[in-house]
Write a structure and sequence with these properties.
two-stranded parallel sheet; 24-stranded antiparallel beta barrel; mainly beta; globular; about 700 residues; single chain; about 10% helix
Length: about 700
C-alpha cells in the first residue's frame, strides 16, 4: 500500500480520537483571509501569469491559526502581518519597551495604527500568554493538541464543452489526453498550535486517475513548531523563503503593482510546511530551524522531476508545468532526480536582521541548455549551487534592505533598497537590482521586471505613496530596466521602462473608488527588408497602456456593488496599434447568514490578443483566477457559498464566455468548437 494510504488513514484516526480537543478550535478566519488574498491579487500586476495565490493563501491561513505574539515578536515577524510596514513595526516595538500589551485593542494607542489598520491586523496577532516550557507540557496531549482543527477539502472543476484532446483519435497514434477533463483536488489537514499534518492530492485535466492513491501529484508533511528553541521541524514537503529571494524563495512571488512601497521589499517567512498544489518549486525531505534571535536552518531534499530527454542521460532543464497527460509527457514523468542540501543562519534584533543562505543541488542526469541565443548563459551540468548574504537595517524611520548572491559559475546578483517616510503622510521606496546574465540561482525569485529566475536584468525602481487627506491617497512608481543579454524572442540587448499612477478615494465606510493608469514600454526585435530586399532585424518597441476605474458601494449590510471600466492600448514594434475596452458589474448578495452569492456580467471588445484585458474573479474558496479577455464578447459567472451546518461549507461556480467573433475557442488539444467556453466547479469543506 502506498504511503498516501497510510497518511489518509492517519487523518481519519485523528478525527475520531480528538473530537473533544478540536471542538475548542478558534473561530473561522477564512473570510478574512479571503478578503486579504483578494486585496493582494487586485493590488499586483495581472499581466504576470505566474503568481501562486494558493500558496500565499496557505501561508496566511497558517498565520491566522498561529497568530504572532506582539509581546514577543521581532520586527521581522511583525512585517509578515498584513497592513504592517517597517515604520509601524518599529512603533510597536517602541511602545512595547514601556510596557507589554495587555490586549490586541491596545494597538490603537501605537502611533500610525488606527481602527482600520487594527481590524486588518487582528486575525493574525495575539498578546500571547506567559509561562515556561516544561517536560510536563511536552508529555501532555493538551500541549500538542491545543487549538486543534481538522479540515477536509474536495474540489472538482471542468470545462463543459468537449475539447479535442478528450475525443476519440481519428487514426492510430494520434495524440490524445490519457484521462478525462476533470481537475480534481483534495486536501486533508490537521493543525494545532504546535503540530501540522497535511496531505494534498491533485489530478490535472487530462491526467488519469484510477484510485484514491493514484493522483499524479501527492504532497504531504508532518510538522512541529514553537517548541522551546525548536522553531520548526518538517518532514515531507516544505519551502524556504529567505532574505530578498535571490538564493531561496519557494513558489513564485508577486511583482510590481499598486502596493508601490511593500511590493519590492520581500518579507521572508523562513522554513514553512508546503500545502500548495503547485507541483515543482518546493522541497521534499527534512528541514529544521532552531533558535530565537539567532536562528539556524538546515535542510535536505530529494525528489523526482520530469524533463525532456536529449539523448541517453542528457536532458533539458526539468519542466515546471507538472503536467503528465499525453504519451510524451507520461514518458518523461519523474525521469530525473534532484538532491539538494543547504542551510541558513540569521540573527535578528530590534535594529537589524542579517542572514546568509546557501545550497548545493545535484541532478542525476546531465542538463544541456537549449541552443537559442537567449540560452547562452543557461545552467549546464549536474551540480549547481548558490550562496548569498542579506540584511535589513532599521535606522529610526529609515529602513534599508538588500541581498547579494553568487552562483557556482561565478555569476553575481544583487538587490538593494530603502523605505523612508519623508513626512507623516508620504513614503518613498527606491530599489536597485542587478542580476548578471550568467547568474544561475535555480531556486531564486528576486524582485524585477522578468518573472521567474533572477538573471540578465538591471533596473532602478522608485515608488511613492502620499495620503492627501484622511480619505484621499495617491501612489505611483517608475521603473527603468534593461536586459544586457538577449532574452527569449530577441537577438540583442534590450531595455524599457514602466510606470503606474493611482488615486483612491474613500468617501465613507460604505463607498470607495479609484482610478489607475499604467504603461509599459519594452524593446523587442522585429524584421524588415532593406533597399536590396534582404531581411534584417532591427530594434523596436512594444508599448502597452491601460486605464482602470472602479467604484464600490456597500448598498446595505447584505448587498455590495462593484463597477469597473478598463481601457487598453497596445502598440507593437511594427507600429501596429490595438485597442481594447472592458466593463463589468459585480454584485455580492448575502441572502442569509449562511448563504452568499457573487455575480458578474462583463462585456469586452479588443482588436486582438495584444490588447487583451485581465480581470480578477472570485472563485471557489482559495481558488483565485484571472481571466484574459480578448476579442468581442461577454463573460459572466455566479458563485454560491452555502453553509448548511457549522462543520460544512459548499461552493458552486458556473462561468461562461460568449464570443461574437469566433466559432473555435482555444488551440491544440484544448480546442473546442462553438463560440462558448464555460466552466463549472464545486467544492465541499468539512471542519471539526
Amino acid at each position: 500500500m502506498k504511503v498516501t494510504s497510510f497518511i489518509l488513514f492517519g487523518f481519519i484516526l485523528f478525527g475520531l480520537m480528538h473530537n473533544d480537543v478540536m471542538a475548542q478550535a478558534e473561530p473561522d478566519t477564512s473570510r478574512t483571509v479571503e478578503q486579504d488574498i483578494e486585496r493582494l491579487l487586485e493590488d499586483f500586476d495581472p499581466d504576470d501569469p505566474d503568481i501562486d495565490p494558493e500558496l500565499l493563501t496557505a501561508l496566511l491561513i497558517e498565520l491566522a491559526r498561529n497568530p504572532i505574539n506582539i509581546n514577543r515578536a521581532g520586527i521581522g515577524d511583525l512585517l509578515l502581518v498584513p497592513g504592517v510596514n517597517s515604520r509601524l513595526a518599529q512603533n510597536i516595538l517602541e511602545y512595547r519597551r514601556t510596557k507589554p500589551f495587555e490586549s490586541v485593542d491596545e494597538l490603537v494607542e501605537v502611533s500610525g495604527i488606527g481602527p482600520a489598520t487594527l481590524e486588518r491586523m487582528r486575525p493574525y496577532i495575539t498578546v500571547g500568554r506567559t509561562g515556561e516550557l516544561t517536560r510536563l507540557l511536552l508529555t501532555s496531549p493538551g500541549f500538542w493538541l491545543e487549538g486543534g482543527r481538522f479540515e477536509a477539502f474536495s474540489r472538482m472543476q471542468t470545462v463543459i464543452q468537449e475539447q479535442v484532446g478528450y475525443t476519440e483519435p481519428e487514426f492510430e497514434g494520434q495524440t490524445r489526453y490519457a484521462g478525462n477533463s476533470l481537475r480534481y483536488y483534495q486536501r486533508f489537514n490537521y493543525s494545532t498550535r504546535r503540530l501540522s499534518l497535511n496531505l494534498t492530492q491533485l489530478k490535472d485535466p487530462g491526467e488519469s486517475l484510477t484510485g484514491p492513491t493514484d493522483f499524479d501529484f501527492n504532497s504531504w508533511h508532518i510538522g512541529i513548531q514553537n517548541v522551546g528553541y525548536l522553531d520548526r521541524l518538517v518532514v515531507g514537503d516544505y519551502g524556504i523563503w529567505a532574505g530578498q529571494g535571490l538564493v531561496l524563495w519557494t513558489g513564485l512571488a508577486f511583482g510590481k503593482g499598486s502596493d508601490v512601497i511593500r511590493g519590492p521589499n520581500r518579507r521572508e517567512r523562513g522554513l514553512r510546511p508546503y500545502q500548495s498544489s503547485e507541483e515543482t518549486r518546493f522541497m521534499r525531505g527534512v528541514a529544521a530551524t532552531v533558535g530565537r534571535d539567532l536562528q539556524v536552518t538546515a535542510f535536505y531534499s530529494n525528489r523526482p522531476l520530469s524533463a525532456t530527454v536529449v539523448q541517453g542521460d542528457t536532458i533539458r532543464f526539468p519542466s515546471s508545468t507538472g503536467f503528465h497527460r499525453t504519451p510524451t509527457e507520461l514518458a518523461r514523468r519523474f525521469n530525473t532526480n534532484l538532491e539538494m542540501y543547504g542551510g541558513r543562519i540569521r540573527y535578528a534584533s530590534d535594529r537589524f536582521i542579517v542572514g546568509a543562505t546557501g545550497y548545493i543541488a545535484e541532478y542525476d542526469k546531465y542538463i544541456l541548455p537549449a541552443s537559442g541565443i537567449s540560452n547562452l548563459y543557461d545552467f549546464e551540468g549536474t551540480t549547481a549551487s548558490a550562496f548569498g548574504v542579506d540584511y535589513r537595517l532599521f535606522l529610526e524611520t529609515l529602513s534599508l534592505y538588500g541581498e547579494a548572491a553568487r552562483s557556482r559559475n561565478g555569476g553575481m546578483g544583487m538587490v538593494s533598497g530603502l523605505e523612508y517616510p519623508i513626512d507623516p503622510n508620504t513614503t518613498i521606496n527606491i530599489t536597485y537590482r542587478n542580476f548578471a546574465r550568467d547568474f544561475q540561482s535555480l531556486y531564486g525569485q528576486g524582485f524585477g521586471e522578468s518573472s521567474g529566475l533572477p538573471r540578465n536584468e538591471e533596473g532602478l525602481y522608485v515608488g511613492l505613496e502620499h495620503r492627501l487627506t484622511d480619505r484621499i491617497s495617491l501612489s505611483g512608481y517608475f521603473d527603468r530596466f534593461s536586459f544586457p543579454s538577449p532574452r527569449f524572442g530577441t537577438r540583442q540587448s534590450t531595455q524599457g521602462y514602466d510606470w503606474l499612477a493611482m488615486g483612491e478615494v474613500r468617501f465613507n465606510r460604505q463607498m470607495n473608488a479609484f482610478i489607475m493608469a499604467r504603461s509599459k514600454t519594452r524593446g523587442n526585435d522585429f524584421n524588415l527588408r532593406d533597399e536590396f530586399g534582404r531581411e534584417i532585424t532591427v530594434l523596436g518597441e512594444d508599448i502597452r497602456t491601460s486605464i482602470r476605474s472602479q467604484f464600490e458601494y456597500q448598498i446595505s449590510p447584505r448587498l455590495r456593488s462593484r463597477t469597473r471600466v478598463e481601457w487598453a492600448r497596445a502598440r507593437d514594434r511594427n507600429a501596429d496599434t490595438e485597442y481594447g475596452v472592458m466593463m463589468f458589474q459585480d454584485i455580492r448578495w448575502a441572502a442569509r447568514d449562511n448563504l452568499q452569492i457573487d455575480m458578474r456580467l462583463a462585456m469586452f471588445e479588443t482588436d486582438g490578443f495584444s490588447s487583451r484585458i485581465f480581470s480578477f474573479e472570485n472563485d471557489l474558496l482559495y481558488v483565485f483566477s484571472i481571466a484574459a479577455l480578448a476579442g468581442q464578447g461577454q463573460r459572466g459567472y455566479i458563485l454560491i457559498r452555502y453553509t448548511p451546518t457549522s462543520f460544512m461549507d459548499i461552493w458552486l461556480k458556473y462561468a461562461a464566455t460568449v464570443y461574437e467573433d469566433r466559432q473555435v475557442v482555444g488551440s491544440g488539444l484544448d480546442q473546442s468548437f462553438g463560440n462558448v467556453r464555460s466552466q463549472i466547479g464545486a467544492q465541499v469543506r468539512l471542519r471539526f
